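Hi C.,

You asked whether I'd gotten around to modeling the 428-residue construct. I have! Everything is below, sequence then structure, no commentary in between.
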Amino acid sequence: MSNLDPYEYLLTFTPDIDERFTLLKQAMKTHVDTKKMVIQVSPSEDIMKTLENTLEKTKEAKKTCSQFEFAIDQTIAALDDMKELLFETKKQCYTDEVNITTTNNTTIQQLIQLEQKRFEEELQKNSFRKAQLQTIFQKKETSLNAKLMSLRDKANNSMGSSSVALNPKEGESDSNNKEQPSEDETTEIEDMLHVMDNSLKSSTSQENEKSDEKDEEEKSEEDDEPKKKMKRRIRSRKALLRQRKMTPISLYDESILTEEERKQIFKWSGRRVGNIVFDSEVNAMGRNSKMFNDGVRDGKGFVLCIDDKLKNRFGCVITEKVEREATWVADENAFVFVLERNGEKDEKKFDIKKKKASNAFLVGKPTQSGLFAVGNDDIRIMRKYKGKTICFCSQDTFEYNGEKKALCGKVHPEKFELKRLILATLEE
C-alpha cells in the first residue's frame, strides 16, 4: 500500500466489511445447525449401515465447519486491510499537518523579521519615536507569536514500542514480542522540526550578518559631527535590538532543570549543564524514535534527569562521548545522583565503582525495546509500549555506601512509574 496514495484509494474504495459479516453469520448458522456428531448404535440396527451414515454426516459437518473457519479468516483479513488503509491514511494526514505547521511557523518567523526590519528602518528616519515604534513592534510580535502552531501533543501521544529486549535479565519474560506499530511518522515530524529550526537559525544569522555589514559601512563614512552623533545613536539602538532578536522556536522548557539543580550538578561534575535535547513530554520514546539516541550522541557527555510519579527526581551524569548504540560506554567519572526524594530536596551523589567503570552507560538501538541502561541496570528504562514504560533500579555498578533503595525508593524486581525523562548536554 505504500506505493499508493491512501487518500485516493480511500475515496474509490468500497469496504466489503458488511458483506463479510453477512457471510460470516450465514456460515456460522449453517455450522451450528449441523447436528453434533455422536455415534449411537443399538443392537437391533445394522451396525455397518449406521456407521456409513455417520461417516457421511461427519463429512458434511467437516465441510460446514471449514466454510465457517474460512469465513472467519476472510473477515479478519478484511478488517486487517481496513486497519492498514486507515493507518496509512492517518500517517499521510499526520505528514500534512507537519507541513502545515512548519509552513505556518516559518511564515510567522519571516513576518516577524520583516516587521523588525521595518521597525529599524523607521527608527533611522525618526529616532524620537523610539518608544512608540517599539510598542507597536512588540504588539505585532506578540500577535504573530500567538499564531504559532504546536505539535507537542501529537509527538507525545505517538504509538510505538519494540519487540527486541536490551540485555534482559535472566528469568524476565518479554511480553512484547509481537510486531508493534511503526513510529516513522513521529521520526518524520522530529526531522521536519529540525529542518524548520535550522532554517530559522540560518535566516536569523543572515539578518545579523547584514545588520553588522551596515554598521561597518556607517563607521567608515566621513560625515559631519551631527550626522556622526546620530549614527552612533542608531548603532547603539541596533545593538540593543540584536540582543533581543527572537531566537528560533524551541520545543523545550529549559526551566525544567532549575538554576539551583544546574549549579549542584556543576558542583558534582565540574561541567556546566547545557541545553535540553530530549523531553519525554515532547519527544516520542517508542520503537524507531531516534531523538533520544541522537541526543546522547550529540557532544561529549550528558545529564539524564528522571521524574517518577512518587515525586522522586534522580538521574546520572556521563562525561564520555557515546560513539555507538548497543555498546557499553566506559566512564570512570560517571555517577548517579538524587535531587529530590518524595518531593523534598535530598541531594546525593553516588560515584561509579572503578572496577565496573567499563559498563557505565548503554543506549539501545531504535529498533530495540530497551531505551538505555545506566550501569548494570542501576537505572533501566524501556521504550514506551501501549502508553506504558517499564522502568526499574538495581544497585550494582555505583557506590551506594550501604544505602538501600537509594535512587527511586525501589529496587528490582519492583518497578517505578516514569513521569518525565529529561536529557541535557554537558558542556566543557
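If it helps when you're writing up: The longest strand covers residues 418-427.

Thanks,
B.
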